[in-house]
Amino acid sequence: QVQLVESGGGLVQAGGSLRLSCAASGRTFSPYFMGWFRQAPGKEREFVASIIWSGPGTYYADSVKGRFTISKDNAKNTVYLQMSSLKPEDTAVYYCAAPRAFGSVLHRATYDYWGQGTQVTVSS
After folding, report:
1. pLDDT tens, 1-19?
2. Residue 117 and residue 15: Cα distance in Å, rounded?
3. pLDDT value of residue 27
4. Is 111 exposed, middle or buried (0-12, 13-18, 19+ CB in 10 A)?
5. How many CB atoms lie within 10 A of CB 33?
6. Which among 37, 38, 42, 111 has the fewest CB atoms less than 10 Å away?
7. Which residues on neighbouring strands pair with residue 19, listed in sequence order?
């Protein structure tokens, strides 16, 4: 069983930065990719970014492209989300996720394992 634990959320002013971390544990952890999603109050959970685990390749939602950077540390089984130039509309609970099998990196249904989420609040 895979466990994902996010950290690094908090309250920040518009224009500020935060870095989220997601530490994965499990007997054998080697997913095809990992992703970050977010869910704002009253809205659907949406894709933010993903990264190929055993090679290059990153993907971003248009709304965060150029402001957010996803990265990984394979030795630590950890994925990061560096968020810069934050906007109030980035306010949400951020979740990291990993799939059991290959599928579309963009779609929530692809992912089987989810963290508990970390709150990010951006004040104007």
Report:
1. 889 999 999 999 999 999 9
2. 22
3. 73
4. buried
5. 23
6. 42
7. 82
| Residues forming a β-bridge with 70 | 81
The answer to whether the beta carbons of residues 98 and 34 sit under 8 Å apart is yes
Task: Quote the CA–CA distance of 106 and 110 in Å, as a whole number.
Answer: 8
User: Which phi-psi region, left, alpha or beta, contains residue 114 (left: φ > 0; alpha: ψ -120 to 50)?
Assistant: beta
Are 6 and 97 within 8 A, CB to CB?
no
Phi, psi at residue 75, to the nearest 5°? -65, -30
Query: What type of residue sits at position 48?
Result: V
Question: What are 20-79's pLDDT values in tens digits?
Answer: 999 999 877 788 999 999 999 999 999 999 999 998 899 999 999 999 999 999 999 999
Structure tokens at 15: 């224009």
